[in-house]
């Protein structure tokens, strides 16, 4: 299976960014940000949204429960889309670049997680949730998008994602929420 898209301006920028960030990965602030970014993993996002939806439903807040169902739907759609992309494109993670000097992009490829850099699933989930929250509760748009952006960017110092992986994840999340809005609007 061939290697693709490894010599272009975007890839060169990704590699420069990864090399610039790598020496600072253990800095206290970056490490804390990376730790906090784990909140944007699928399990915490699904658990949080489902728990809030159940609580809203049980408390009689049906409109809020419906909005939270929209959040769950956006998250589920983002997860499906990013999983499809990860199965279609295998990109080595920055950690392989740092540890072994490997940077490759292939169509389809290895099932090993060290080859699932593109797109960032954390960024996809964070963006989908932020967009759904912003649509359902417009007053929360700015904090939702800021949190999603900061937590998504924090994936880069971990050595798990290049900047374009994060950007692709954000795009996946926004597209997913837009699809869900057409199928299951945040408000009737």
Short description:
By secondary structure, the chain is mainly alpha-helical.
Folded structure, characterized:
There is one protein chain. With 188 residues, this protein is mainly alpha-helical. It has one domain. The protein is built from eight helices and two strands, in the order H-H-H-H-E-H-E-H-H-H. Strands 1-2 form a two-stranded antiparallel sheet. The longest helix is centred in the middle third of the chain and has 27 residues.
Number of domains: 1
The sequence of SSEs as H and E is: HHHHEHEHHH
How would you classify the helix and strand content by structural class? mainly alpha
Distance, first to last CA: 48 Å
Tell how many strands the DSSP assignment holds. 2
Overall form = elongated
**How are strands sequenced across the largest beta sheet?**
1-2
Strand percent estimate = under 5%
Radius of gyration from the CA trace? 17 Å
Task: Compute the average pLDDT.
Answer: 87
- What share of the residues lie within helices? 55-70%
Number of helices: 8
Instruction: Please describe the biggest sheet, giving its number of strands, its sense, and whether it closes into a barrel.
Output: 2 strands, antiparallel
Low-confidence stretches: none
InterPro entries: PAP2/HPO (IPR000326), PAP2/HPO_sf (IPR036938)
Membrane topology: Multi-pass membrane protein
Subcellular location: Cell membrane
Keywords: Cell membrane, Hydrolase, Membrane, Transmembrane, Transmembrane helix
């Amino acid at each position: 299976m061939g290697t693709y898209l490894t010599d272009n301006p975007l890839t060169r920028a990704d590699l420069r960014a990864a090399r610039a960030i790598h020496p600072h990965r253990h800095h206290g602030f970056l490490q804390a940000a990376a730790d906090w970014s784990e909140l944007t993993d699928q399990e915490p996002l699904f658990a949080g949204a489902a728990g809030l939806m159940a609580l809203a439903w049980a408390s009689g807040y049906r409109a809020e429960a419906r909005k939270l169902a929209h959040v769950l739907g956006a998250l589920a759609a983002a997860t499906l889309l990013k999983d499809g992309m990860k199965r279609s494109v295998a990109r080595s993670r920055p950690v392989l670049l740092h540890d072994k000097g490997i940077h490759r992009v292939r169509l389809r490829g290895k099932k090993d997680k060290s080859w699932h850099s593109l797109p960032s699933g954390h960024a996809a989930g964070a963006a989908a949730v932020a967009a759904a929250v912003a649509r359902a509760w417009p007053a929360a748009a700015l904090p939702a998008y800021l949190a999603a952006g900061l937590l998504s960017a924090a994936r880069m110092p971990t050595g798990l994602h290049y900047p374009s992986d994060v950007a692709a994840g954000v795009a996946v999340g926004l597209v997913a929420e837009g699809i869900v809005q057409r199928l299951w609007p945040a408000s009737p």
